[in-house]
Amino acid sequence: MAVQESVAAGLEAGVDASADMGSGTAPRARHIRSFVRRQGRVSNAQQRYHQEMMAKIGVPYAAARLDLDMLFGRVAPRILEIGFGMGETSAAIAALHPGNDYLGIEVHTPGVGSLCKLVAERGLHNQRIVQHDAVEVLRDMLPPASLAGVHIFFPDPWPKLRHHKRRLLQAPFVALLASRLQPGGYLHCATDWEDYAQQMLAVLSAETLLENTASGYAPRPEHRPQTRFEQRGRRLGHGVWDLVFRRRLDSLQAENDRQDEFA
Predict the structure, then answer these.
(1) Per CATH, which fold does 4-22+40-262 belong to?
(2) How buried is residue 55: exposed, middle or buried, by Cβ count under 10 Å (0-12/13-18/19+)?
(3) Predicted local distance difference test score (pLDDT) of residue 6
(4) How big is the CA angle at 68 (ends 63 and 74), to the nearest 5 degrees?
(5) Which of 101, 133, 156, 257 does the annotation list as catalytic?
(6) Is 156 a catalytic residue?
(7) 89 with 225: CB under 8 angstroms?
(8) Mean pLDDT along residues 214-223
(9) Taking the chain, what is the end-to-end CA distance rounded to the nearest angstrom?
(10) Which of 43, 72, 148, 158 could be bridged to 77 by S-S, CB 3.0 to 4.6 A?
(11) What is the pLDDT of residues 115-144, one digit of tens each?
C-alpha cells in the first residue's frame, strides 16, 4: 500500500502516514496499541541503570522532529529497532557496528533498564533509547527518509485470532515505516510464528515503496545474532522466519508523483 493511498486506512487504525505531508503538525489520532504495559518486576540493577543512563542516552518523547545528527553528535547511518526486549541483541549489534547509530524503542522498564546496563558495561556510544509507543515516535519524531534500516525482531505475535488487530505489522504502519526509510534503506523483520510470518510477507509485499530482497523469506542476515531463546527453539525444531525488504531506489520520485495525483 502506498503512503498516500494508506491515509484512509491509517486513520482507521490510528496511524496517519501523511502526517508530515501537510502543515507538519501531526494529528493525534487514536490507534490500536500492539503492546500492553505489564507491571513486570524491575530488578535493583535495572532500576539503578535506568535512572543513571536514561539521563544520558534516553530520548524523551515529544511531538517534534528529532535532529539525529545532534542527538548522536555525528553523521552516520541510523538504524531503528522497535521492541528490543531485554536488549541483548541490540547491544551486540551496536558493539559489532560502531560506525552505525542505533535508536531503540521499548515501552517496558525492565528491558530498558537491562539495555542501559549493557550500554554502560560495554561502553557503547552509538545507542539511544526512547521509552514510548513506536507508532507515535515514528509519526511525530522521525523525519521522512532519515533511516538506513529498521529492525523488528520477534514482535508480540498476538496468537489469538481476535487479537490479530493488535499485531504491529499492519499495512498503515508499514507505510509509515517505509516513508521513514531512505531509498535503499532496509526493513528486517523476524518471527517464530509461521502465520505471523505469512501475514508479514503479504503486508510487506503489498507496500509499493518496498521490494523484497529474497524470493520469499530471507536467510538470517549476519547482522542479526541468534538469541538463546531462538537457539533453544531451533534445537526443538521450531522455525524462525526472516524477512528483509528495501525501500526502492526510485521511490522518492514515485512518492512525489503520487502526491501530485492527490493534490
Answers:
(1) Rossmann fold (3.40.50)
(2) exposed
(3) 33
(4) 160
(5) 156
(6) yes
(7) yes
(8) 93
(9) 18
(10) 148
(11) 999 999 999 999 999 999 999 999 999 999
